[in-house]
Structure formats: C-alpha cells, structure tokens
Design a protein that fits this description.
With 426 residues, the protein is of the alpha/beta class. Helix content is 31%, strand content 25%.
Length: 426
C-alpha cells in the first residue's frame, strides 16, 4: 500500500501501544509454563501473530476468550514432533526461536526468507552444543537437541538470539554458562528477558560479564495473576515523542520509567537535544513539547530501535549530529542506515551515511517527496513523522509495513492530527 501524507503538526494525547518485546516474551513464558494463562493482547501485529502461530505449532493452543483476551495453553500435553516453523521475513524472530526450538525438539524446520549463515558465530555455538543445521530452498533443517554447557559469544551478539538462548537454557538437563568476548551491547533487551523469566519462576544469574543458568528448571504461572497485562512500548512511543519535540505538544500514556525497556532512553536523549520533555511517574505519562532542538553525538549500540525516530529529529535540529555504532541496522527488515539516509535526503535533509553511523547537518524545513519504507516497519513510522513536518505532500510507498509491529500506527497518527490517505482509494 502507498499513502499520501500532508504536512500537519501532531498534537494531543494517546496511550502507548503494547510493548512487542514484553508481549513476545510473555507469550512464550505462558507456552512453556504448567498451566493455562489468560493474557490481554490489544493488537495482533504481524510479529505477535507469528509468535502465536509458533506456540500452536509447538503443540500449545491460543484461543480468544473475549475481544482482547486470549487463553494460552502450554505445549507440554500435546507437544509436537518435528514442527515446521514459519519465520518468513523476520530475522529477529528467527534468531530468537532457534535456541528455544532446539531445547524442545530433536529435529525441526524453519521456513524463512533469509537463513543465518552456517559459519556465523551463533550457528557455530549451536552446532558445538549438539544442534546442527542444513539449509536449502528457503528451509533451515535442524537435527539434534541443544545441550547445556559453556557458551561463548561476542558482545555484539543480537539481543534476540541471546534472549532466546537464555529462555532455552533453563529447560536443559545441564547447567550452562554464557560468557562474552567483549562488552555486551544489548544488555537492556536481555534485562527484559531476565525480568519476564523471573516472574515465571526461572532464575538466571549474572556471573561476571556473563550469565549462569541452572538446568532442569520449570516455567511456572505467576500465582497472583489470573490475567496478565502488558506494559506500554517505549520504542513505538519514541516516534510520537520525537514528533512532539519537533513541532507539537504530545503526551503518551502507559509508559513507566521503571520499565526495563532500554528504549526509555528516548527521554534523556531528546532532553540532551534541548527538548522540553517530562515523565510523570504518578500517571506513567510522558509529555514532549515543541522545542528548539540542537545536534548531539550519540552512541546507539544499546538502543538501535531509537535510531529512526532520532534520525528525523536530528535532521531538523540546529547544528551537527552523529549516531554511532549502529552497523547492525544494516541487517534489519531493511538496511536502515541506507534507507534513512536515502529517504531523508530526498526530503531535503543533509544526511551522510557511514559504515556504522549516520551524520546530520540540521535543516530548517523538510520538503515533500516520494519515499519508500522498503518494507520496514520502523522506516515507515519514521518517514510518516518526517512527512508530517515537511512542506507539501509526501508519497510513502509500502506504508503498510507498520503492520509488523504497530498495526494501529496510522489510526493513532490521525488521532494526533496527522493527515494520511491511501493513494489507491483516491
């Protein structure tokens, strides 16, 4: 789908969407526990539908009990044999599910658009611990159950694989240790995994620069909850907060500063740029008011999902800005470094692309242009915000990519005063 966006300031209040990271982990905790659990799911994004489909393929069940509540039945009673999993284009889901499936099944297949190379460090670790893989015709075929022991990973190992591994290791017979050859860059995302696992009775201990995981643990349903709710998403809210700081007054609710989500760093980062941004811990609301923004130099290795929103803000900030240590973004749903540079420059920004960085010289005004999300949900959201503060009209190709993580994005966009229409319906 292509959309036409007309410039208009975004202003108002809206609740944050559910955290995809938190919901994703909660779904798998429920599926690996001993009893059925009812969980609130406000929006069935592409990623969440993929997680639910995988639980069913593992042998569990996910059934609606009301409009937004679903009962998740664990996999154990009807556990599958040799399941086939569909990762499609989601490389992040692929990395998460490989170690989880390897802990549960002697063999399984994953259908995916792009396999992880067999010589990659994470696949070598899998093979060294009993699980081998062959690849052909869009299918990764795994044989051998994962065994515990000592795992050694690079510090820039993606948070998705590491989260999946830490989910899997407690289920193994053996104790395990995970160590790193350099400083862990995705610690904030891993903290979310540890927090959710702990709520289900699973203990993962920090040991030096790594982790120690006792084997033969079980995921247990939280005894004090009949129904589970999911916290608000800081990564999705970052786009609205950036929009508020650029040119309107925006308030996002349902955002706790006590969250383990690393993307809450958007508040101090926008504040460093000069934004009038305030978090109210009593109401779990964050206010971002129209401000004069200034360029900053920031290392985003620990918060890569904030880069698209920050890139739009930096394009309109006075002076020079730099976002560093983001090489991993070249391997997301799109090459995000190139996509951001390409689209923003078409809109009159001054952005320079480096191997693992983006440089900005702020401009006073963006202009409407024909741009493309390249099928990437975060690029689509960032470009919608950029188009709102551009002079004239902007055509955003493949705008429906937002369905992957935030299907209500354009509804919320309109609630704040955004003007967007489907070109095909004109």
């Amino acid at each position: 789908m292509d959309s036409l966006i007309t410039g208009a300031s975004l202003e108002g209040m809206l609740p944050a969407s559910q955290s995809k990271w938190a919901l994703h982990r909660m779904i798998f905790c429920c599926a690996l526990s001993e009893e059925p659990t009812v969980i609130t799911i406000n929006d069935l994004s592409g990623d969440i539908c993929g997680a639910i489909d995988t639980v069913i393929r593992f042998g569990g069940a996910v059934l609606p009990v009301s409009e937004r509540e679903y009962r998740i039945t664990p996999i154990w009673e009807k556990k599958a044999e040799n399941p086939v999993i569909y990762a499609r284009e989601s490389g992040t889901f692929l990395r998460f599910i490989i170690p989880v499936a390897a802990a549960l099944f002697d063999s399984f297949e994953i259908r995916c658009a792009a396999a992880i190379p067999p010589f990659s460090p994470i696949m070598q670790q899998m093979e060294e611990h009993g699980c081998s893989c062959s690849y052909g015709d869009g299918v990764m075929r795994f044989k051998g159950k994962l065994k515990g022991g000592d795992f050694t990973l690079a510090g820039n190992t993606g948070g998705r694989f590491l989260s999946g591994l830490l989910f899997a290791l407690p289920l193994l017979e053996e104790d395990s240790r995970v160590s790193f050859t350099s400083r862990l860059q995705t610690g904030g995302y891993v903290d979310m995994t540890l927090e959710k696992a702990a709520k289900y009775g699973v203990r993962i201990y920090r040991q030096g620069m790594g982790y120690f995981v006792k084997g033969n643990q079980r995921y247990l349903k939280p005894f004090d909850r009949e129904k589970l709710t999911v916290e608000g998403d800081w990564a999705g809210a970052a786009f609205w907060l950036a929009a508020g700081a650029i040119g309107g007054d925006v308030c996002c609710g349902g955002l706790s500063t006590l969250s383990s989500q690393p993307d809450k760093e958007i508040v101090p980062l926008l504040a460093r740029m000069g934004a009038d941004i305030r978090a109210d811990n009593r109401t779990n609301s964050v206010f971002a008011l129209k401000s004069r923004l200034y360029g900053i130099d920031v290392d985003c290795s620990a918060v890569p999902d904030l880069v698209p929103a920050l890139a739009v803000a930096m394009s309109l900030a006075k002076g020079n800005s730099m976002i560093r240590n983001i090489g991993w973004l070249r391997h997301k749903e799109s090459d995000r470094i190139r996509a951001l540079c390409h689209n923003l420059n078409l809109m009159g920004a001054k952005v320079t692309e480096y191997d693992d960085a983006l440089g900005f010289v702020g401009v006073k005004q963006l202009k409407g242009a024909e741009i493309d999300s390249f099928g990437d949900h975060r690029i689509a959201m960032a470009m919608a915000i950029a188009a709102t503060y551009a002079k004239g009209k902007t055509v955003l190709k493949n705008s429906d990519a937002v369905r992957k993580s935030y299907p209500r994005f354009y509804y919320d966009f309109k609630q704040l005063g955004g003007i967007i229409e489907d070109i095909k319906e004109r």
